[in-house]
């Protein structure tokens, strides 16, 4: 459909240019003006811009994606849906939305970030307004912390100046050098504008394995007590999670003002995944590849995953992280 529209626009534009020499000056001016307008239309049609055509929140889409594609994360699904929906429906938020996602590898933190982007930006994670920072890649050297702080401030300011609906994702916060993230504290605070720039409609998402041990302990306690994992509530984890992250001197959140000044809106725990969730991940992966989901194959994949504690084999060590590669082996 998009290609057909483009061909039509190009045809009209080329026709207009051919006709330029066939008319008097006044008519020619009209045709040239028409051509310029069409040229701008084509540019806007192809080039992502910071407007509702390219940025439009799909609340129903996000709910459906969380329900159908994120497994074993009832707390995270509920918080993410309410937080993002409330923020995106507010035309005048008091501050940016700040989410901190915590849990062991393979539990869905990066995946949820993608689902959020997919349901806000037409181009999803490929949008020019979605920016991903990975600590070990973008901030590898502790000795350059001062330089990183300055660069990070300039990068965020420049991108929000271009589009107030920007999203910034910080991966591997547990590997970030302490103190670095404090450089962006002013952008997350309750300011109308800073140097003429408003950050209040932007979204900041932090991803971290820090606090994962506390989440696992809680999930294991519930399991040992014979209680269903769906009984675990945010209140069972949020306070201890924020404190453990704040006091972890190996984390980018160590004694950070972002936590001290309550600028993180939600600490979102991602629970360790059980056998049933690994099966669901395998079935979903098969569906994504265009295969008919095969429960027998999914069971083989799930049985090949390493679980802990060793004797009970309750939780997957790597969550759904290795499912794609294991599926290649069993299909």
UniProtKB/TrEMBL annotation:
Signal peptide: 1-22
Any Gene Ontology CC annotation: endoplasmic reticulum lumen
Domain of life: Eukaryota
Principal localisation: endoplasmic reticulum
Domain annotation Torsin-1A C-terminal: ranges: 273-330
Pfam families reported in the protein's UniProt record: TOR1A_C, Torsin
Similarity field: Belongs to the ClpA/ClpB family. Torsin subfamily.
Descriptive protein name: Torsin
Organism: Stegastes partitus
Gene name tied to this protein: LOC103374055
């Amino acid at each position: 459909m998009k290609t057909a529209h483009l061909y039509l626009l190009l045809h009209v534009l080329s026709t207009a240019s051919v006709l330029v020499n066939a008319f008097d000056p006044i008519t020619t001016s009209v045709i040239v003006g028409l051509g310029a307008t069409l040229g701008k239309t084509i540019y806007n049609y192809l080039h992502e811009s910071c407007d509702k055509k390219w940025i439009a929140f799909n609340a129903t889409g996000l709910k459906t994606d969380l329900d159908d594609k994120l497994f074993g994360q009832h707390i995270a699904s509920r918080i993410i849906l309410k937080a993002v929906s409330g923020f995106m429906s507010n035309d005048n938020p008091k501050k940016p939305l700040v989410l901190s996602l915590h849990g062991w590898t393979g539990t869905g933190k990066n995946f949820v970030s993608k689902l959020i982007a997919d349901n806000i930006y037409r181009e999803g994670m490929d949008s020019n307004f979605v920016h991903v920072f990975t600590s070990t890649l973008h901030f590898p050297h502790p000795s350059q912390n001062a330089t990183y702080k300055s660069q990070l401030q300039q990068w965020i300011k420049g991108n929000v100046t271009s589009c107030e609906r920007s999203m910034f994702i910080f991966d591997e916060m547990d590997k970030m050098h302490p103190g670095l993230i404090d450089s962006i504290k002013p952008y997350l605070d309750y300011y109308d504008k800073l140097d003429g720039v408003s950050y209040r409609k932007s979204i900041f998402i932090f991803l971290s394995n820090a606090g994962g041990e506390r989440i696992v302990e809680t999930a294991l306690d519930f399991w040992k007590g014979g209680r269903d994992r769906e009984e675990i509530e945010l209140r069972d984890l949020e306070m201890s999670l924020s404190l453990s992250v704040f006091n972890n001197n190996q984390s980018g959140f160590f004694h950070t003002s972002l936590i001290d000044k309550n600028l993180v809106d939600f600490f979102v725990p991602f629970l360790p995944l059980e056998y049933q969730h690994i099966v669901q991940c395998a079935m979903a992966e098969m569906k994504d590849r265009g295969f008919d989901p095969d429960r027998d194959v999914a069971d083989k994949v799930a049985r090949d995953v390493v679980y802990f504690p060793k004797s009970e084999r309750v939780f997957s060590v790597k969550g759904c992280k290795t499912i794609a590669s294991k599926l290649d082996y069993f299909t």
